[in-house]
Structures are given as structure tokens and as C-alpha cells.
Amino acid sequence: MNNFWIWFRKSLTYIEAEIRAGHFVYDLDKQITQLGDFGWEVGELENEPNLFYLVISGGGTELDMEAKEIILNAPQIPNWKFYFWKQRRKAKDFYRVFNHQFNEFIEIDITNWKFVLYEFDDGTYDIEVLVPSSFLLFSEQFQQEVAEIVLNSVVGEEFRIKFILEIDFVLDSNTRAIPFKKLWEIFGNG
173, 130 in Cβ contact below 8 A? Predict the structure, then answer.
């Protein structure tokens, strides 16, 4: 773990340049993968110019405690924040998601997405996401990755893992469905 943070400090200029250019930071991926099978995210914080963030997450698995330990051992680095859960964000219409199958970023437009939210007595939820047929052409794994990224921005990763049980993508046919961006209002992040 210490070697990771030593490498990270030495590589700051490179990492920040890659983030600003909108590139996937392959070397960072390699370094984090050496620590374990963690989910991770890096970027610039919204509405805070020149402030970057890194998230290393166990994704609701037995790796959660290890991810937390890695982040708690992060050095103090000016203009950087470190998290072990992916944070809520402002609503947006497009998500740029790296597709490992095609080895490229794909722009996902959620402006036409709709949803039906099913709430259970225990405070958990299932979400049925109604999408255009073109989205269903992607692999189920990629669909799930996109769902997690979008829902993390709505409710935060911790809430998504603990309270959203099922996410299903279906063709847009449910008349009870409402625009997807309403989720931000429902969960207080509009």
C-alpha cells in the first residue's frame, strides 16, 4: 500500500494531465489492480477548479475494509481528495464510460431514459430503467457498469449498494415511468 502512495505522489503531474485530457489512466489502473480487485474512479471535482479526487472502492464486497484502509492511509496532497465510496453528483445528461470490450470511452445519453421505482417496506428499492433499444445492444456487464455509475451519481455508492437491490433495463413501454432525471429530486440531489 505504501508503494502505491509513493508511486501516486511521483506520478501526480502525469495523472492530472491524463484527467484533464479525458483519457483513461492506464498506469493508475495497473497500480490499483496490484492492490486488489477494487473499483476506482478519478477525475476533477465539479464546481471546484483544479481540485481532483480519487475513489478506491470495494463495491460492497469483502474488499470494502481494505479499500477504506488504503484511503485512510492516503498522504495529504494539495488539491486532492480521497474517498472509499463513490460520491453523489449533480444531475447530468451524458456519461462517458470506459467500455473494456471495445477498449474505448462511450458516451451514454440518458436524456430519454425513464424509470419505475419500487419501494419495499424495509426501505430498499428495485429500479426498472426504461431505455432505447440501442442501449440493450451493449453487453449485460457494460449495462450494469453504466447503471452503477449513473446511480452512484444519484444516490452515492454506499446507498446504492445497501438499498438498491435490483436494477433492470427494459425497453421503454411502461406508462407509469417518469423521466430518469427525477431520481435526483426523489433522492434530494436535484
Answer: yes
Question: Are the C-beta atoms of 30 and 39 separated by less than 8 Å?
Answer: no
Q: Where are the domains of the chain?
A: 2-83, 110-186
**Segment 12-42, tens digit of pLDDT:** 999 999 988 888 898 999 999 999 888 888 8
Question: If residue 125 lies in a helix (H) or strand (E), which one and from where to where?
Answer: strand 125-131
Contact 173, 133 (CB under 8 A): no
Rounded to an integer, what distance in angstroms lies between the CA atom of residue 70 and that of residue 147? 26
Backbone angles phi, psi at 145, to 5 degrees: -60, -45
What single-letter DSSP state applies at residue 54? E
DSSP β-ladder status, 164-171 and 125-131? parallel
pTM over 0.85: no
3-state SS, residue 116: strand
d(CA 115, CA 47) in angstroms, rounded, equals: 28
